Amino acid sequence: MERKEPKNPAAYRALLGLSGLFTLAAILTLVPNPRARWENVLGYKSLCTFAPIATAACAFLAGTTCVVRARRFGPRAGEKRSFIAPLIVAAALAAVVALALPPYLAAKADVGTGASVSAAP
């Protein structure tokens, strides 16, 4: 079986690079950073205090660019394929955001009032 080439190699490589950048950004949002001002919703100080919401957003963008790259510019561009797997992943990332948003908003409300978790009895 011979290997097929992408339909538009320049666009394919550009979207592959963009997918890589979004993936790297998703990983970096979770890296611990003891000098961060606030803890993230997961309970530790990280490079991004918006984790895991920012992690899910970056992962969604990485996945979206992968789907676009594969379906529009990849070697199998134009072939009919199911959207079930991308939709399942998008739903899982939306669930992460939905679960993390209420604690995040509550923490930000406490910051605005001057209250802190360490001052609690």
Tell me what the structure shows.
The chain is mainly α and 121 residues long. The chain has one domain (9-108). The protein is 59% helix and 0% strand. It is built from 3 helices and no strands. The chain has helices at 9-28, 53-73, 84-113. The radius of gyration is 19 Å and the shape is elongated. The mean pLDDT is 89.
In brief:
By secondary structure, the protein is an all-alpha fold. The chain has helices at 9-28, 53-73, 84-113. The chain has 3 helices and no strands.
Question: What attributes characterize this protein structure?
Answer:
single chain; 121 residues; mainly alpha; 3 helices; 59% helix; 0% strand
Helical fraction: 55-70%
Q: What is the H/E order?
A: HHH
Strand content: under 5%
Radius of gyration (Å): 19 Å
Task: Please outline the helices and strands.
Layout: H1 9-28, H2 53-73, H3 84-113
Helix pairs in contact: 1-2, 2-3
